[in-house]
Amino acid sequence: MIENILIHELIKELYPSFKITGVAKQSGQRSVYFGTFESQTDCEPMGCEAWGQVVLKVTEAKSKAAISYWSQEVELLAEIENNHYPRHYFHEIIREDPRTEEPIKPSLLISFEEYIISETLTQKMNEFNNEDKVISF
């Protein structure tokens, strides 16, 4: 995985008004950030300042499978209109460093999604910690 410091610098350059408020645990080939757009500059996605809290996913395009998985996820989220799934706002592929115009290898797959407040499975399991609670569910 490209170093998180480099990813943070690229995020700041690509999306200058995006403020990172949290970072999810590393999972596989993806880095996940939480944050908000405080305004919108000319280089940022249209309407981004109205999105509120969002999830920024950064995936390395290391293989055709990674690109295919990312493309399918973006397409699926763009089609689904359901409160249980995040709304897809924006995606792009970053092939070069905007500061130097040098190629980035591997390219980065970027997507912004709605942040949904939720509970983890562990939290839910703790909620149903006895037979009566499970039966009443």
Explain this structure.
This protein has helices spanning 4-14, 64-79, 121-127, 131-136, and strands at residues 18-23, 30-37, 54-60, 88-96, 103-114. It has 137 residues and is of the alpha+beta class. 15% of the residues are buried. It has a five-stranded antiparallel sheet with strand order 1-2-3-5-4, sandwiched between helices. The chain has four helices and five strands. Helices cover 29% and strands 31% of the residues.
Please name the defining characteristics of this protein:
137 residues, alpha+beta, 5-stranded antiparallel beta sheet, 4 helices, 29% helix
Task: Give a short synopsis of this structure.
The chain is an alpha+beta fold. It has helices at 4-14, 64-79, 121-127, 131-136, and strands at residues 18-23, 30-37, 54-60, 88-96, 103-114. 29% of the residues lie in helices and 31% in strands.
